[in-house]
Amino acid sequence: MHIHILGICGTFMGGLALLARQLGHQVSGSDQHVYPPMSTQLQEQGIELIEGYDPSQLDIKPDLVVIGNAMSRGNPCVEHVLDHGLRYCSGPQWLREHLLQDRWVLAVAGTHGKTSTASILAWILEANGLSPGFLIGGIPQNFGVSARLGSTPFFVVEADEYDSAFFDKRSKFVHYQPRTLVLNNLEFDHADIFDDLAAIERQFHHLMRTIPSTGRVIAPLDEPAIERVLQMGCWSELERSGESAQWSWSKIKADSSEFEVYFEGKSQGIVNWSLIGEHNLKNAIMAIAAARHVGILPQLAIESLARFTSPKRRLELLYQDNELSLYDDFAHHPSAIETTLKGLKAQDPEQKIVVVLEARSNSMRMGAHAPLLGPSLQLADQVLLFEGTQSSDSLQAIAEQYNNIALFADIESIVQSCSTAVSGKTVVVVMSNGGFSGIHKQLEQRLKARSS
């Protein structure tokens, strides 16, 4: 079968392309403004990439067109598919019908930490001989690819609450029907498709309705929105994490790079790994709990985390010398920004933190996170906030309100200012959920030249 994917460079659709190829299908696809690491991954796998949405790409008459949720009516390819009666479906629908049937699906849902937690969980299963399949919205460095079929019934999926397609406004995760569900956290996001937090909670409730009674839900105690979801109905086994819950922890190091794990009050072992931040500690706890549901002892899961490497773009170290560290972080929400900065500050309270931030997500561009964005950045000594060519009143207001935040309209000015800002022991964190106009390489080159 020849499958053509519209929006193929999205993290979900790119992973789906790999899975379709591994199943033996011919796969091609198109997208706009493609950027690594997904574009690189697809090219390495021999998948044809077409830039743009000229409908002539569909003259080949593929057997099926899989339409990404970034596509909308008016897109030339979408209109061609509809006008010519080509067979089409959404990505989540294809995944369910062609791959997830008869698999033990372990799904990771929540506003933050999905990619990291799913990567941790997949690695725990891999390190303990279960060879899982997975589809993750990033590239786990322990595997080098964002998706694979696996050789056992177990399949780990990053369960996104974003809508499935222009013709299916249900959240993607409703299609997955997991047996093991991790609910990391829940805050308002995706302001372009959800009116308020209650609307997102309703979608999570729909997800809860798909879990079998013999399935298991793992959820934290300290998330009010998760509590409201559970109160709407939970028909499955339920395990909780938190200070007074079944799964708990105690920090050994302030930056959470070493901590002890407890289940029902009994120590299960000590995690000593390369990640920092309490958010990653909580991600690990959830993954250990989920792995236990498929039979992996917590002690074995804990041992495997010593060999876990953070996914690409999740506080990924790009460059380091005696005084400077340059990181790339996939930031899209104020809470995620704040927890990352807390981890860096706990790692070394004396180091200077410079944040280079592109407020790129739809919610940020719409100003939905404006009240929280400024406060979330206050652990940074200096913030270089990219406005781009489109002026934003909410970003300008933030820059005027906080002394450590400066607004920039072009990349070169940011690179120059960042180079000037680096003095003494400094951490530079580039935060964006997009390609950020290739600023990572430009910064790396400028900072290397500065130190040589």
Automatic annotation (TrEMBL):
Q: What class of enzyme is it?
A: ligase
A Pfam cross-reference name: Mur_ligase_C
Q: Gene3D superfamilies from the entry?
A: Mur ligase, C-terminal domain (3.90.190.20), Mur-like, catalytic domain (3.40.1190.10), NAD(P)-binding Rossmann-like Domain (3.40.50.720)
Protein EC: 6.3.2.45
Query: Per its UniProt entry, which superkingdom is the organism in?
Result: Bacteria
Binding locations of ATP: G110, T111, H112, G113, K114, T115, S116
Mur ligase C-terminal domain location, by residue? 313-433
Q: Which GO terms describe its biological process?
A: cell division; cell wall organization; peptidoglycan biosynthetic process; peptidoglycan turnover; regulation of cell shape
Q: Indicate the segments forming the Mur ligase central domain, all copies.
A: 108-291
Which ranges carry the Mur ligase N-terminal catalytic domain? Answer: 2-100
Q: Which protein family is it in?
A: Belongs to the MurCDEF family. Mpl subfamily.
What is the purpose of this protein? Reutilizes the intact tripeptide L-alanyl-gamma-D-glutamyl-meso-diaminopimelate by linking it to UDP-N-acetylmuramate.
What is this protein's record name? UDP-N-acetylmuramate--L-alanyl-gamma-D-glutamyl-meso-2,6-diaminoheptandioate ligase
Which lineage ranks, top first, belong to the organism behind this chain? Bacteria, Pseudomonadati, Pseudomonadota, Gammaproteobacteria, Alteromonadales
